């Protein structure tokens, strides 16, 4: 597989990072004031002497996706010859784990040729503070005692829960890149790839990227895939036309009728593809398409494997597993051995599960309100009400209907609601 251009063209030096001069000056001034760094680098970049910069304990780089936050730290480490110890939100879910990784990184001797170590907590706003057993506190603790530079990045660190990080670190805001900045980088890449790219085409890519250079570079690579050496504005329009909004019926039809694995897999690139919805539809349409039990079993087996990946993603936020789930649920159910010729028209039914959820929405809402009311008034958790109390009350109510009225009076809730819930 071709190397992604976002990696191939990731700037290696401070100089190559486009239009983030202020951020580069501030970051370099902080590093040069507090840590060992090459003289030439400091002379070129460390232009600021503000107290708040030179005394900061750590740095938090903030700004929208794809504008160079991670890149600037990688380039800095290379410029000052520091070894990078990098953690992202999925590594740093628990305080314990953070301490393990950072501690091990700091204890081990640096590889030959490095002057020191630099800790990067990438995308700290990906931390779900409540569930993150101590993640945030541990980062603050590490910053307090660290003798090495600690840098964090975040798309949106302004949520009140990240206040401890903002308080302890110097926040450096990176700018959203302009359309011209993005076009400039794309033009350089075209030249380097030996491709002739129309200015208008590059502008159109830049416009839809909304300043996210990563997205723009990825789009350019897609347009110039399979060795194409010319990019015109018509190519861009054509791809837009090739990717119309599809209904779920059309998506399913394309998946089941795909002739190759890749053809089915590629449907996930359509802008209207919603994998969670698709999954529900796939679950119920397999028997409509495959009448043969053996084929049905194969398709369900693949879908169940995809479901295992999805379960794991939901639990651990390991989003890098999503491609496996998609391959199994698209290519996997489309390409079964000895697939029969499909009839020209297949009637895909609306998933019963969605219908049921829609029908029972009101009942579920009432039940939820009642559970909440019971939990609050009886000073127990909602899960206790759902998992235990309701069964006890229901068993009593089956023998003695008067409990419904008594509960209704005591709690001030309609007797019918209580009856529906318990019986
Ligand atoms: N200012 C920039 N100058 C040059 N290239 C850039 C710049 N910003 C981003 N890029 C390109 O975009 C890619 C993604 O950048 P980077 O990973 O640094 O984004 P980010 O701001 O950290 O985004 P996220 O918050 O999504 O991680 C880089 O590999 C690089 O190719």
Describe the SSE topology.
Blueprint: H1 5-8, H2 21-34, H3 39-45, H4 51-54, E1 58-62, H5 69-80, E2 82-88, H6 95-107, E3 116-122, H7 135-145, E4 150-154, H8 163-168, E5 169-173, H9 179-192, E6 196-197, H10 199-209, H11 213-223, E7 230-231, H12 233-242, H13 248-257, H14 261-265, H15 275-289, H16 293-316, H17 322-329, H18 331-334, H19 352-359, H20 361-378, H21 382-399, H22 402-411, H23 415-422
Helix pairs in contact: 6-7, 9-10, 9-11, 10-11, 10-12, 13-15, 15-16, 16-17, 20-21, 22-23
Bound molecules: adenosine-5'-triphosphate.
E-strand count: 7
Q: In terms of per-residue confidence, which ranges show pLDDT below 50 for 5 or more consecutive residues? A: none
Mean pLDDT level: 86
CATH homologous group name of the largest domain: P-loop containing nucleotide triphosphate hydrolases
Order of helices and strands: HHHHEHEHEHEHEHEHHEHHHHHHHHHHHH
Q: What is the level 1 CATH name of the largest domain?
A: Alpha Beta
Bin the strand percentage.
Answer: 5-15%
- Helix fraction? 55-70%
Q: Strand order across the biggest sheet?
A: 2-3-4-1-5
Major β-sheet annotation = 5 strands, parallel
What's the structural domain tally? Answer: 4
Describe this structure in words.
The chain is an alpha/beta fold and 423 residues long. The protein folds into 4 domains: 167 residues, 3-Layer(aba) Sandwich (Rossmann fold), CATH 3.40.50; 61 residues, Orthogonal Bundle (Helicase, Ruva Protein, domain 3), CATH 1.10.8; 88 residues; 67 residues, no CATH class. Helix content is 58%, strand content 8%. The chain has 23 helices and 7 strands. Strands 2-3-4-1-5 form a 5-stranded parallel beta sheet, with helices on both faces. Helix 6 packs parallel to helix 7, helix 10 packs across helix 11 and helix 20 crosses helix 21. The longest helix is centred in the C-terminal third of the chain and has 24 residues. The relative contact order is 0.07. The mean pLDDT is 86. Adenosine-5'-triphosphate binds next to helix 5 and helix 11.
């Amino acid at each position: 597989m071709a190397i992604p251009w976002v990696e191939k063209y990731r700037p290696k030096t401070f100089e190559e990072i486009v239009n983030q001069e202020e951020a580069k000056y501030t970051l370099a001034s902080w590093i040069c004031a507090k840590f060992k760094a090459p003289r030439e680098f400091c002379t070129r970049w460390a232009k600021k002497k503000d107290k708040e910069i030179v005394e900061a304990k750590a740095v938090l780089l903030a700004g929208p996706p794809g504008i160079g936050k991670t890149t600037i730290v990688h380039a800095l480490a290379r410029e000052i010859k520091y070894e990078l110890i990098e953690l992202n939100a999925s590594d740093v879910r628990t305080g314990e784990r953070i301490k393990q990784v950072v501690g091990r990184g700091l204890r081990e001797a640096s590889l030959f040729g490095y002057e020191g170590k630099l800790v990067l907590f990438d995308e700290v706003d990906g931390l779900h503070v409540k569930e993150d057993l101590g993640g945030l506190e541990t980062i603050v603790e590490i910053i307090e005692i660290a003798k090495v530079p600690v840098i964090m990045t975040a798309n949106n660190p302004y949520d009140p829960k990240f206040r401890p990080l903002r308080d302890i670190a110097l926040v450096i805001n990176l700018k959203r890149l302009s359309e011209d900045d993005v076009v400039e980088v794309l033009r350089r890449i075209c030249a380097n790839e030996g491709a002739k790219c129309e200015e208008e085409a590059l502008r159109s890519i830049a416009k839809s990227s909304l300043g996210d250079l990563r997205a723009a570079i990825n789009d350019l690579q897609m347009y110039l895939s399979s060795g194409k050496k010319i990019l015109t504005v018509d190519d861009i329009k054509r791809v837009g036309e090739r990717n119309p909004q599809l209904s779920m019926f059309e998506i399913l039809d394309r998946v089941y009728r795909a002739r190759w694995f890749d053809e089915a897999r590629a449907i996930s690139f359509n802008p209207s593809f919603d994998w969670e919805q698709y999954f529900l539809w796939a679950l119920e349409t397999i028997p409509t398409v495959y009448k043969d039990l053996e084929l049905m079993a194969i398709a369900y087996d693949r879908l169940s494997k995809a479901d295992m990946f999805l379960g794991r993603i939901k639990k651990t936020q390991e989003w890098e597993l999503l491609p496996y789930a998609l391959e199994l649920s698209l290519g996997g159910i489309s390409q079964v051995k000895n697939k029969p010729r499909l009839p020209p028209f297949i009637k895909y039914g609306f998933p019963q599960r969605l219908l049921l959820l829609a029908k029972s929405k009101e009942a579920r809402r009432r039940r939820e309100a009642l559970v909440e009311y019971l939990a609050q008034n009886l000073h127990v958790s909602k899960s206790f009400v759902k998992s235990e109390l309701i069964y006890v009350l229901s068993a009593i109510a089956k023998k003695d209907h008067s409990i419904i009225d008594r509960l209704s009076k005591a709690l001030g809730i309609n007797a019918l609601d209580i009856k529906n819930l318990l019986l």
